[in-house]
From TrEMBL:
Keywords from the named record: Glycoprotein, Leucine-rich repeat, Membrane, Receptor, Repeat, Signal, Transmembrane, Transmembrane helix
Family statement drawn from the similarity comment of this UniProt entry: Belongs to the RLP family.
InterPro entries: Leu-rich_rpt, LRR_dom_sf, RLP23-like
Keyword tRNA processing belongs to the record: no
Phylogenetic lineage: Eukaryota, Viridiplantae, Streptophyta, Embryophyta, Tracheophyta
Name recorded for this polypeptide: Receptor-like protein 2
Intracellular or extracellular location(s): Membrane
Organism, scientific name: Prunus avium (Cherry)
GO CC annotation terms, alphabetical: membrane
Membrane topology of the entry: Single-pass type I membrane protein
Residue spans crossing the bilayer: 193-211
Matching Pfam families: LRR_1 (PF00560), LRR_8 (PF13855)
The gene coding this protein: LOC110773618
Amino acid sequence: MSGEFPKQLCRLPRLLYEPIASQVHKYEFELPVFSVNICTNQTLLQRKLSSVPTIIGLSNNNISGYIPAEIGQLHLLRKLFLGSNNFSGVIPEQISNLKNLEVLDLSSNHLSGIIPSSLVSLNFLKEFNASYNNLEGLIPTGTQLQSFNASAFEGNPKLCGAPLPNKCGPSKGIDANNKNYKDVDNGLHQLPWFYIFAALGFILGFGEFVVL
């Protein structure tokens, strides 16, 4: 997100719901209530919100399409649960912008391509799960990714390197930036990502809990 702080938000000190509609379903996100005046007491607001869990939980749904690059704008996000869906395409490099991320669950989807080496910048990452996808290539070496249990990477037959037991053979020309892999989006049960991040990007920038 960029630009100046929208003064119009000063008129919404007790915002409770931000409904997001799609072609098939209506998704509703519950927001916490804050009585502090966000325009006159920024320090108090930041202190109050520091205890709010910044989480997006979308696991165990039937969401398809790609993981949007815009997710990298939610800089204070700490936990991201996208497991057990039908996401396809690649793991977006922009996830590496989430410097406060502690948990990343991408398991049981249809993600392809390599694991971006940029994820090594996630210094606070404590839990990672990319199992049961279509990932391939070498797990980034010399990083905390190799400190996770092999179960975090299992179910990807073409993935290799520690902590998995299978060693990598000669490189087969996998593009390090995943440019050789095109995002596939069939539109079935896909969340309106653009509108979700437009609506929640600022709010989650302070702190939020979103679960479907």
